[in-house]
Amino acid sequence: QVQLVQSGAEVKKPGSSVKVSCKASGGTFSSYTISWVRQAPGQGLEWMGRIIPILGIANYAQKFQGRVTITADKSTSTAYMELSSLRSEDTAVYYCARTCSSTSCYTLMDVWGQGTTVTVSS
Amino acid sequence: QTVVTQEPSFSVSPGGTVTLTCGLSSGSVSTSYYPSWYQQTPGQAPRTLIYSTNTRSSGVPDRFSGSILGNKAALTITGAQADDESDYYCVLYMGSVVVFGGGTKLTVL
User: Fold this and answer.
1) What distances in angstroms separate CA B52 from CA A48, A64, B57, one per listed residue?
2) Number of Cβ atoms within 10 Å of the Cβ of A21
3) CA distance A49 to A38
4) pLDDT for the residue numbered A45
5) Contacting residues for A122 by C-beta, under 8 A, at least 6 apart
6) How far, in Å, CA of A59 to CA of A23, rounded?
7) CB–CB of A107 and B89 under 8 A?
8) B14-64 pLDDT tens trace
């Protein structure tokens, strides 16, 4: 049974960066994809990007290009999402999710982390 | 940029049937978008209901079904129950990226 456990809540200043971790237990980390999805207070879900750990290849939503970096450490079965140049609008809950690796099920995110609250405030 | 559209809100009576839809601001949704549907209650992570248009995720009751209706993806709930009151999100594959719709708040009353 795969579980994803995320790092704890963060409070950051505008202009700084945040790095959230997502550690997998159970299953074979390198055999699947990890997506990152965020949800601002009272708002909907927003896909940020994903990584294929076995290849180390990531791709990102256009909105976040240049500001987000998703990486993975196969040795510790941990994925990371780093968001830079933070602004108040980045205040949100950030989720990691195990994602199907095949094109035909790229939209399937079947195991979710518990979420990490990031608050951006001066 | 193409936007994924959903009804902002919907209501259904207990025991009733409701169909939520997922469209595009420009163009039609087909099976090639591999639409998936997620249910979310406040404070919880999303739960997968349907993926690849019409495949139910493990443990999801068969009163949830997915399809393509006209030019949109659709999620149909038959025999609605009180605990179906949630936010529902569709997500589409759009060429190496995925895009969520804005979500539908379903009320059961």
Assistant:
1) 20, 26, 10
2) 18
3) 10
4) 98
5) A13, A14
6) 20
7) no
8) 999 999 999 999 999 999 999 999 999 999 999 999 999 999 999 999 999
Above 90 in pLDDT, residue A64?
yes
Q: What is the mean pLDDT of residues A19-32?
A: 87
DSSP result, A26-93:
SS-GGGSEEEEEEE-TT--EEEEEEEETTTTEEEE-GGGTTTEEEEEETTTTEEEEEE-S--GGG-EE
Cβ atoms of B92 and B33 within 8 Å: the answer is yes
Chain B contact for A1 (CB, 8 A cutoff):
no
Q: Do B57 and A110 touch (CB under 8 A)?
A: yes
CA distance B4 to chain A (A): 11
Q: pLDDT at position A105, please?
A: 86
